[in-house]
Task: structure prediction
Amino acid sequence: MKSPYCFIVTPLNNTRYSNTTKVGDKELVLNTSEEDFRFSERQAVVQETPLGYDGPIEVGDKLIVHHNVFKFYNDMKGRRQSGKSFLKDNTFLVDEEQYFAYKKEGEDWSAVDRYCFVSPLPKEDTYIYKPFTYEPLMGTMEIPNKALLNEGVTKGMKVTFKPESEYEFLVDGKLMYRQFDHKIVATL
Result:
């Protein structure tokens, strides 16, 4: 089965939510709310590519997807429903606007379209009190896109970005912000 325009995917580890962690030999549930987008699974495994697709993504590759792809929601009568991406069983359709990066086995993540990923920098010690965990509007480029690479912005460079552009993802256990490349202001 193939879709004309969408990737057919399953959630990583076949679970819609990544809301547990291991503590010793026990599994601890971090959150039981299905409405909290921070715990919805954001990685998918490609089962089929769209008809006529000739890009770099292949069956078996991983995708970083939008938080609503796998989420449940409650309709007006309080009934549990799957979102518009649901196809059947544990299979979902992901269109071109719902994924931000892909990863082939044994390779690094590659950003698609105008997206890139930046990890936040820990706050620097200064004489000024800073009531936050990370330096505001600064980070390390983790997954640059082709446009940024063409401008000389490479993985590992410190960058600054525009306010209100931090869209949090946990990628391979590391906190990253998905950014649009035009939100990257400068390299430091």
